[in-house]
Design a protein that fits this description.
By secondary structure, the protein is mainly alpha-helical. 72% of the residues lie in helices and 5% in strands. The protein has a two-stranded antiparallel sheet.
């Protein structure tokens, strides 16, 4: 079986597996990687960029190498290659968990239980829930759904199309390292620099594809394009900016503004300033848009890989 077909069938099976099974409660491969990366950090940590770069190289390089070895072992068996691709895709994407957590917060808000929504929000993002009212929580959920559609699904599919199983595992490793050490805290400002910069590079193509597909799949394509062009560059993240702006325009809502992370207040630019304030019902709308974008991304990545294969054959 040709490599492009192995990716197409395997990635589709992995997305279906995520849809049907979600993430396991225990023993998730990404959690195992996180524990290994934390062990490496305990050995290497210094307040130094070079040590942080070594940490990134060891952990991300190890994930890519593991994927390459596994792919090589099964390369003579199409069935085993397909199964490996499906398992790797299921392991690295997180669309179902993203939707489940977003809807859990949304249900609490619909029931008028703001305290329950605040208690659940940390499962989805790092905002300080005590600083948010119901509308602020809903806005945080929509922003997290938008950003994580790129990070948890589309970006992985893009790198799977480029590099197969090593690409899938490598992208998830880089994204996980950024979440662990890439934030601008005193401890990780230098040590996490390499992980954060590598995540920016790895996330660039997936973020742009997510923004394009949100524009095509949303309720207001013109609004999505307008918000993306006008506001994305002002966002502090080069990848979250296009994604959140396009989601804001596609949904017709306003995102961005003042945020609080662990007591640290950030004043971010408003995205799609002509849109209305986020309402509780927009949580479900964002989840549905995320799902459409995810399946469209699979189709786009499969098509791109087949075209690339045709040009090289």
């Amino acid at each position: 079986m040709r490599a492009d077909r192995v990716f197409a069938y395997g990635a589709a099976a992995g997305l279906l597996g995520d849809l049907l099974l979600g993430d396991p409660r225990r023993g998730h491969p990404v959690a195992a990687f996180g524990r290994a990366a934390a062990a490496v950090e305990r050995v290497l940590w210094r307040d130094d960029r070079a040590r942080g770069a070594l940490h990134t190289a060891v952990c991300a390089g190890g994930a890519v190498a593991l994927g390459a070895v596994a792919a090589r072992v099964v390369r003579t068996s199409p069935a085993a290659s397909l199964a490996l691709t499906g398992a790797a895709t299921w392991a690295v994407v997180g669309g179902t968990s993203l939707a489940r957590e977003a809807r859990a917060v949304g249900r609490a808000l619909e029931a008028g239980d703001v305290e329950a929504a605040r208690a659940r929000l940390p499962h989805l993002c790092g905002r300080d829930p005590q600083a948010l009212d119901a509308d602020g929580i809903a806005r945080a959920v929509v922003e997290s759904v938008a950003e994580n559609t790129s990070d948890a699904v589309v970006g992985a599919l893009v790198w799977g199309a480029v590099g197969g199983v090593p690409g899938l595992l490598g992208f998830r490793a880089v994204n996980t390292l950024d979440a662990m050490v890439g934030h601008r805290s005193p401890k990780y400002l230098r040590y996490g620099w390499a992980s954060a910069r590598l995540d920016d590079v790895a996330g660039w193509p997936g973020a742009r594809l997510t923004a394009v597909l949100a524009t095509l799949a949303g309720d207001d394509p013109r609004g999505a394009v307008r918000a993306w062009r006008a506001d994305a560059a002002a966002h502090p993240s080069p990848n979250a900016g296009p994604v959140e702006a396009s989601f804001a325009g596609a949904l017709g809502v306003r995102l961005g503004g003042t945020l609080s992370y662990g007591g640290r207040v950030e004043h971010r630019p408003v995205l799609n300033g002509t849109g209305r304030a986020v309402g509780i019902h927009d949580v479900e709308r964002a989840v549905r848009l995320s799902k459409r974008v995810s399946w469209l991304a699979l189709g786009a990545c499969v098509a791109a890989r087949r075209i690339a294969k045709g040009r090289t054959s």
